Structure formats: structure tokens, C-alpha cells
Amino acid sequence: VCLLKNEPPECVITHSSGNHAQALALAARIHRISCKVVMPRGASPVKRQAVLAYGAEVIPCGDSLQERQTVAQQVIAQTQGVLVHPYDDPQIIAGQGTAMLEFWEQAGPLDAVVVPVGGGGLASGTALALELLTGGKVPLLGVEPQLADDAKRSLAQGRLVPSSYPPTVADGLRTSLGQLPFELLMRYQVRIVTVSEESIREATRLICSRLKVVVEPSAAVTVAAWLERPQEMPSGRVGVILSGGNLDCSQLLR
User: Partner of 170 for a Cys bridge, out of 39, 69, 215, 218, CB 3.0 to 4.6 A?
Assistant: First the structure.
């Protein structure tokens, strides 16, 4: 919201399963702006409750990206609000890249970085930050669920392959890779590996029990890659980004 070139609008709108929605809802509340979030009905109840708690209005929609976009456009037409895309936007990508800048500032030089991939905003922002920090000399590895491997297939085929909003436990990674993130991941030759549902669950439990850090399954895919594919993972001093803590504790117990 702060990065908008003109005066802040009366209403901001997005479509998101939860993480971006919460950030936008909080920013809107701080700036006293109305916020409407188009959210898939299959989204995590914990994320939905958090968005509501930040003061945004949640508008339910179907699970597909097409339905999310269609409903969002309808809301924009009704309210004349401004769309803040969850990942396919230069400013959002740049903002997500600041996580890598802070990481580098706190941890020092790294030999590689591992990041989750959903819509691709965080991954492409991280790639840009590594270009700024190292001239692209530090490789970036992306991780996504096997059930939601649209980024891996898109990069392999050189074209966007849409996701069908698959039933992976990593609900934040169900969305399709965005056009701009796709172009950036292609430019920086980001390698993608995929992980199984069981590895994601085990990684979530491991992080909570050993690190005492609350993360959602979408974040835990980075650690799941080490559990399932240690031979494919980078060596040396590796930075691992954990990208969300919206965990339903009953889900963890199950």
C-alpha cells in the first residue's frame, strides 16, 4: 500500500489463500483503507480467521485460479478498488526479495539458498536479491510439492503450465506460477525439486519439535527436500527460507 504512486485508494483488493491476504489486510488497516480478499473456499480456516481479525472482508470463491481472478475482477468493478496481486507484480516481488537481503545481512555470505515455490513471488524476489548481492553467483533452489509441480513443469517446458489447485497439505503452494515470476526464474535458471506429502508432514513436525519454530507445511517443503532428496541438495553454507507460520495446531496433531 505504501508503494502506490498516487494517493492511497479507498479500497484494495486481492485474491489469496491467506499469507498475502493477511499482509495486505494489516497494511490496509494501518492506513485506514478498506480491504477485500477473494479467498478459495478450500483455504486454511486459520488463515481465513487471521484475515478477518485484521479487519478485511473475505469473499469466498472456487479453488481454481480462473475463479479467483474472475471474482476479484467482479469486486474491482463493483468497488473501483485497486488490485494488489499476491505475486505477479513487480512491487510485491521486490518486497518479498527483502527477506533475502535481511537474511544475508544477518547470516553473512552463503553458498546457496533454498526457497518454497508457489506463485513465485518469493522465489523470484529472492533470485533478484541474490543477483544484487552476488551478481548471480549464488545458486537458488526452489522446492514445491509433487502434487503441485507446475513451476517445475513450466521451467522444463519453457512455458507456463497452470496448476489445478491440487489437494497438497502445503495449501499456500497450490496456486499457479505467475507470468513475471516465471520469466525471472527462467532468466536466473532456478532449479526446482519436488517433495512428497509425507516428507512435507515429517518436515513440519521436525521443525516444530527440534527448532521450536511454528511453520506451516508450505514453509516446511524446504526442509522436506533434505529429508527426501539429500543427494540433490546444495552443500556448504546454505540459507533456507521458511515462508509462513499459519499452522492449524490440530492439523499438526493429526
Answer: 218
